[in-house]
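To: structure subgroup
Subject: Chain for Friday's discussion

All,

I'm putting the inputs and outputs inline so they're searchable in the archive.
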Amino acid sequence: MERFCSVTNIKSNFRAISKSSLSGGFFFFNLEKISELSKPFKDKLKENNQTGWQTKIADFMTAGTSKGITATIVNPINMLKTKAEAHGQNTPNSALMMAKDVYKRNGIFGFFKGVSATIARDVPYSGIQFMIYKWFLTFEHFFFPKSKLFS
């Protein structure tokens, strides 16, 4: 318990939670907005009785797009966090000093180093995960026959 509550562990835990919360917030905000934009397309699919793989692809694209946008927005924060972790806890640099250094060396594009790898990893993962989640929601009546849990 003493190790868990040490000042350095509390700081590192807070950094991880705050980055994850920010990333999750952006993801679900984008997911909601993109879902609203894709609603006419999904309604058209329902009108034409094309609710099979087309809606699954639409769900995949919705979540993948949301994650791509989120990864791009959050990457500067993630890059600075990774840089601080690489320097260790003994570094005197603040986040602002590291940001100035990155900007001085690489310009604005320095904050987006590694974003292509993040997008290549996260977009398919989020798309597949959301597509499977939406598919499982179609079984609501099987698991919860008289419930409006997911309505």
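Points worth raising on Friday:
The radius of gyration is 20 Å.
The chain is about 75% helix and 0% strand.

D.
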